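lol forgot to send this yesterday, sorry. struct tokens for the thing we talked abt
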């Protein structure tokens, strides 16, 4: 009996060590029960966790339901996030492919690109979500479609001009390897002179470089900073705001969640609605109404003006009546 007990104890210890050993595994959140073999499984790969991407995922599931598909009856889903790690994103996509999921949803460019590559051999349809420039990312043809979150850059420049009439320079930090950000920077530089601005941009290669880049922008005395939907930048927004608030430099967000966190304002889209639109596309594919090739990618064209009144007051920025009349309070319940 003692030998048997010792054997069982050793086995339990080995299992516990194995469970704790993989610290770089993807973070997974999926239905508790194993998906039924008779129900299509959707693999949702999210590049990392921050409110904007979380809203994309939430909206995606809502869009499926609104299209008449019921979870547990018409589909099941497996959700994993890569923690902003490209290698983990590839691992997640390959895992979905190995499980022969019925469809993959890639949230943000890096995850969508990984899903498309992993799905290609098996011709698994891929739906992308939250990609600014699908053409630049080479995700505009093949068994893939989705919804672009292209920024309303002209509206953002106009908003900044109205809130800061004397401003001359706008600082932007962006990731050089993220096609969304590269495309957005090019458009900012093209349109900024029309509004009397100069863009001071700093490219980074990793999230660890972002706050140092912000320090550089502060030292260059930029009049404000405008964020993109750059995942490396948004992922450390709290740290950015700590620095800019101390320096008295307003930061403009690219969507409502960034304004809620402390950016002064934004001309941005609603990521819940973006997700819903993506979910409706996915529903058409799952229902067999169309293939991805038959569904050109869509672009969100509606945007709203969001403001954070506390942040505006902190920066001594008065909201002009022309903006106040159409602005939405980001912190309103």
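and heres what i got for the seq, position by position
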């Amino acid at each position: 009996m003692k030998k048997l007990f010792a054997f069982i104890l050793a086995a339990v210890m080995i299992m516990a060590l194995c469970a704790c050993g993989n610290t770089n595994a993807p973070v997974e959140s999926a239905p508790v029960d194993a998906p039924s073999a008779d129900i299509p499984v959707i693999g949702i790969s999210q590049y990392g966790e921050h409110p904007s991407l979380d809203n994309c995922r939430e909206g995606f599931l809502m869009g499926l339901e609104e299209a008449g598909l019921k979870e547990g009856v018409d589909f099941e889903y497996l959700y994993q996030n890569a923690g902003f790690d490209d290698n983990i994103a590839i691992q997640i996509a390959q895992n979905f492919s190995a499980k022969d999921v019925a469809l993959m949803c890639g949230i943000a460019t890096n995850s969508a690109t990984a899903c498309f590559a992993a799905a290609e051999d098996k011709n698994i349809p891929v739906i992308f979500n939250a990609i600014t420039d699908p053409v630049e990312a080479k995700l505009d043809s093949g068994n893939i479609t989705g919804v672009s979150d292209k920024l309303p850059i002209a509206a953002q420049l106009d908003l900044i001009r109205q809130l800061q009439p004397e401003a001359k320079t706008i600082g932007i930090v962006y990731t050089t390897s993220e096609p969304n950000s590269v495309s957005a920077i090019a458009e900012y530089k093209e349109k900024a002179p029309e509004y009397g601005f100069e863009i001071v941009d700093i490219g980074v290669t990793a999230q660890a470089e972002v706050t140092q880049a912000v320090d550089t922008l502060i030292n260059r005395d930029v009049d404000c900073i405008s964020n993109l939907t750059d995942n490396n930048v948004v992922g450390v927004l709290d740290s950015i705001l700590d620095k800019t608030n101390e320096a008295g430099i307003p930061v403009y967000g690219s969507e409502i969640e960034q304004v809620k966190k402390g950016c002064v304002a934004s001309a941005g889209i609603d990521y819940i609605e973006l997700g819903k639109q993506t979910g409706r596309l996915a529903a058409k594919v799952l229902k067999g109404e169309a293939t991805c090739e038959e569904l050109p990618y869509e672009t969100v064209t509606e945007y709203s003006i969001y403001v954070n009144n506390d942040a505006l007051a902190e920066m001594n920025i008065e909201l002009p009546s022309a903006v106040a009349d159409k602005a939405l309070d980001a912190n309103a319940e």
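The mean pLDDT is 89. anyway ping me if u want another try
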